Amino acid sequence: MRKSLMRMTLRQLRVFRAVCDNHSYSRAAEQMALTQPAVSLQIRQLEELLGQPLFEYSGKKLYLTEAAEALRRTSEDIFGRLESLDMQLSTLQGSLQGRLKLAVESSAMYFAPHLFASFRQLHPEVSLQLVVVNHAQAIHRLNANRDDLLLISQVPTDMDLEFLPFLDNAIVAVAPADHPLCSRAALTLQDLTAWPLLIREPGSGTRRATERYCDQKRAHFDQTMELGSMEAQREAVLAGLGLALLPRHAVLRELKIGALRELPVEELPLMRSWCLVHPRGKYLSPVAQTFFAFARTERQRINALERRFSAGEQ
């Protein structure tokens, strides 16, 4: 190993990470409570140690070089190990402490906080950093090693991953309560195609799953409207703009009060599984290890939680 790398300091890496996160020297300086020349000096010293530039400008935008991308991945591992050390020291003192960094697909955003709350009943000194993303963003974060664990519904088959399916995710067809289809006792997917379908953005896992399923069933919607979030989909259905195929968990409250109706489509629900995922061989912090084990071993507890959640008793 190059001897120069041993001279890097944690402070330099913290400043470097701030520049990466903000794509700006000035915003990094504000975040770190430093002057901009002080930030520039730290980055310049790092570049001298590495022997390569870390950032480059194109127009007015700051971009990471390949060396910076490699250093960012390494710095995330270093700080992750230090955080893990802190957790292990706390564990040696008799309690599990630390933070779980969890990224969840939007289809799981409603249930995930309740899942963590159940986990926290067993480990009250653990905190949560939760990020909600679509499927494409989840894969990007997985490649960048940004999180301890991911909660997703479609596990990529082209990556070496450890994954744990632990809960069903039912996708159903919903309509406003006064929609003509709500008076029908039985429907097929084909019956829905005469109406506009409200869909998510291209990176959405729910959109990908439902499009494939509709293609398999030869149910082709001529009228679609694209919306950028599950909440926008739900509100658009409430506004009468069309029908939607949504995770049942995402519309439980609206179904319960009668604002939306689940349509009796014989090919639905489309059942998917929520899975906890991390790269195979990834070092998991004690908190992440314990949460993964919780999802694997506490099935009865999680199923009871899901029943309460679905019944609106959360």
Automatic annotation (TrEMBL):
Gene3D superfamilies: 3.40.190.290, Winged helix-like DNA-binding domain superfamily/Winged helix DNA-binding domain
GO molecular function, one term: DNA-binding transcription factor activity
Keyword check for DNA-binding: yes
Coiled coil start-end: none
Superkingdom per UniProt: Bacteria
One Pfam family hit: HTH_1
UniProt domain HTH lysR-type: residue ranges: 8-65
Keyword terms of this UniProt record: DNA-binding, Transcription, Transcription regulation
InterPro entries in UniProt: LysR_HTH_N (IPR000847), LysR_subst-bd (IPR005119), WH-like_DNA-bd_sf (IPR036388), WH_DNA-bd_sf (IPR036390)
Entry similarity comment: Belongs to the LysR transcriptional regulatory family.
Name used for this protein in its record: LysR family transcriptional regulator
Taxonomic lineage: Bacteria, Pseudomonadati, Pseudomonadota, Gammaproteobacteria, Pseudomonadales
